[in-house]
Design brief:
This protein is α+β, with helices and mostly antiparallel strands. The protein has 3 helices and 8 strands; from the N terminus they run E-H-E-E-E-H-E-H-E-E-E. Strands 2-3-4-1-5-8-7-6 form an 8-stranded mixed beta sheet. The structure holds zinc ion (ZN).
Length: 133
């Protein structure tokens, strides 16, 4: 079951250049983390019950680098918190959604994550995430 919007992911060219204005807008960030497998550096800012995740590429192999080759920096993905990520992937696959990740992988902020292909969601990149127990 999808429970809530956990965070919105924002792709940025440079965290150094962007973070100050986001912190002025939303308040202090609480976590900075490099996700080696994804070649990204992320920073999280809490906004009520949700978060903003700023993502910067650490390598040209990063999906964020590829995104920024084609798009301006800005909104990148929405992440929905689920109670059981395996079950939810199974359900969505059955509903005909195209999955980028068939099985969950480790993501930032102590989460297991999986992405759906934007082809299935009218262009919206959707992340499912579940807090690691
Ligand atoms: Zn995310």
């Amino acid at each position: 079951m999808i429970k809530r919007i956990e965070h919105l992911g924002i792709a940025v060219n440079s965290l150094e250049e962007t973070l100050t204005s986001y912190e002025a807008l939303l308040g202090k960030s609480y976590k900075e983390e490099i996700v080696e497998s994804e070649f990204v550096r992320t920073v999280f800012i809490q906004v009520g019950e949700s978060k903003i995740e700023l993502l910067e590429a650490t390598d040209e192999r990063s999906a964020i680098a590829k995104f920024l080759e084609k798009n301006r920096q800005g909104f990148h993905h929405v992440a929905f918190e689920v109670d059981n990520i395996e079950k939810e992937l199974e359900r969505l696959k059955g509903e005909g959604f195209q999955l980028i990740h068939e099985t969950p992988k480790d993501g930032a902020d102590n989460k297991r994550i999986a992405f759906l292909h934007p082809k299935s969601t009218a262009g919206l990149l959707v992340e499912l995430c579940q807090e690691k127990g």
